[in-house]
Design brief:
It contains 12 helices and 8 strands. Strand 6 and strand 7 form a beta hairpin. By secondary structure, the chain is of the alpha+beta class.
């Protein structure tokens, strides 16, 4: 299993054609004894690592419906999915839109075939919800930029090779106008990553300290001082991705730090459900899982619980229909923000209903004894996070109010005020 497989490029391929092509690809190329690296190389070569990207950036030009069908067929065929992480989810689409042909060729292929893992270096201790107030600075030094500052809530920073870095390159410009977007190397002197342990006991997030680290001018994506526009593309892709749903194949962390490139691909397919104790991901499958659990332990006799289950079912259906409407193109500019809000609400609702179903077992965590192996307890502790990461629920509502409904902005300094003149902290 070497080299790249091919798949026809089609902008408007019908569902039957997409399904048959992906099934044929799996029949011909899936080998559970192949390494993860070999399989990812084949997926990327066929355009299935990220089929929504344009053909010139390693994709097939598919729409959301077609891309979702690719994921569904890969899951049905019990094969390993494409590389996980923020590189494929965010960096590749952003670079495909704003990068030069040289930058696309340099950065995107190694994302799609899993050679390099990425993180997102946006938020700072004093620039979270108000991201445009970021103070991490980039100063020009010949063909390089010298970066100094601090980032926080960096998902996967400890296992990433590169980062999507927003830094201030124009301090005398208005705060939104003096920011640039860089493809930043994490493995260099002056970069320290400190994991932040959450109440789940895991460390998904990190704080990153940058002290005179360097990035080449050729890694500046989208033009000097145009980072706010480029970063907004990243954020819109993130919100749409976080709010999406559908059955997907198992994914693994990319890059050498992920530690799986040389491992047998088939092993991870077998482990994918075992890792969650057989618990499906959020969605209609997990709803049915909770219903079956409630029937087994007798909690389904509660009228209150049955009401809660049907309320949750309605939310799942509203989310599904909203996604279908977005795929059909008949939606508003607020669709990504609404999807993000719905995802936050789904996490809270699954937490609340799950706790009602399992009762006191919801206090158990990890591999503890209990009806679900502690899965509901972990979901309960993790559930506040989705309403914060990717832009808080409050930020999403502000965006909808100001940019879509035309409501007045909160009072503040004139937008054209130079960043250097704005009050800090």
């Amino acid at each position: 299993m070497t080299g790249a497989a091919s798949a026809p490029t089609a902008t408007e391929a019908d569902a039957a054609t997409v399904r048959s092509e992906v099934e044929a690809f799996c029949d011909e190329h899936w080998d559970p004894d192949a390494t993860v690296e070999q399989w990812w190389r084949l997926l990327a070569g066929a355009g299935y690592a990220h089929p929504m990207l344009p053909p010139g950036a390693g994709g097939l030009g598919y729409g959301q419906d077609q891309a979702a069908l690719v994921s569904l067929v890969l899951a049905e065929r019990n094969v390993l999915g494409p590389p996980g992480g923020l590189g494929r989810m965010l960096a590749a689409p952003t670079i495909a839109i704003h990068g030069t042909p040289e930058q696309i060729e340099r950065f995107v292929p190694e994302i799609l075939d899993g050679r390099v893992g990425w993180c997102q270096l946006f938020s700072e201790p004093n620039a979270g919800s108000d991201l445009a107030s970021l103070q991490c600075r980039a100063e020009r030094d010949g063909d390089e930029w010298v970066i100094t500052g601090q980032k926080v809530w960096t998902s996967g920073g400890q296992v990433s090779d590169r980062g999507m870095l927003l830094a201030r390159t124009g301090p005398d410009l208005p705060k939104h106008a003096g920011i640039s977007w860089f493809a930043f190397d994490m493995d260099q002197p002056g970069v320290e990553v400190r994991p932040l342990t959450e109440m789940t006991g895991r460390a998904l997030f990190n704080e990153v300290f940058i002290d005179e680290a360097r990035v080449a001018d050729s890694a500046l994506i989208g033009g000097l001082n145009n980072g706010w526009r480029v970063g907004n593309t990243t954020l819109m892709v993130e919100r749409a991705s976080l709010g999406s749903s559908g059955r997907k194949p198992p994914e693994l962390l990319p890059g050498p730090k992920g530690g799986v490139l040389g491992e047998r691909a088939g092993d991870f397919v077998a482990r994918s459900m075992e890792a969650l104790g057989g618990v499906p991901s959020l969605g209609i499958d997990m709803w049915w899982w909770l219903v079956d659990l409630a029937r087994k332990n007798g909690s389904v006799t509660s009228k209150v619980l049955r009401d809660d289950l049907m309320r949750l079912y309605g939310l799942i259906e509203i989310n599904r229909l909203s996604i279908q409407r977005a795929k059909a193109g008949s939606t508003s500019a607020a669709a990504p923000n609404i999807a993000k809000l719905t995802m936050s609400e789904l996490n809270r609702s699954f937490r609340d209903v799950g706790m009602r179903v399992v009762g006191a077992d919801g206090m158990l965590m990890g591999d503890s004894d209990g009806q679900t192996g502690g899965h509901i307890g972990e979901l309960a502790l993790f559930s506040p996070a989705p309403s914060i990461y990717g832009g808080t629920d409050q930020v999403q509502r502000n965006i909808i109010g100001e940019r879509v409904l035309g409501l007045p902005k909160e009072p503040g300094p004139p937008r054209e005020t130079p960043f250097s003149e704005l009050p800090k902290n």
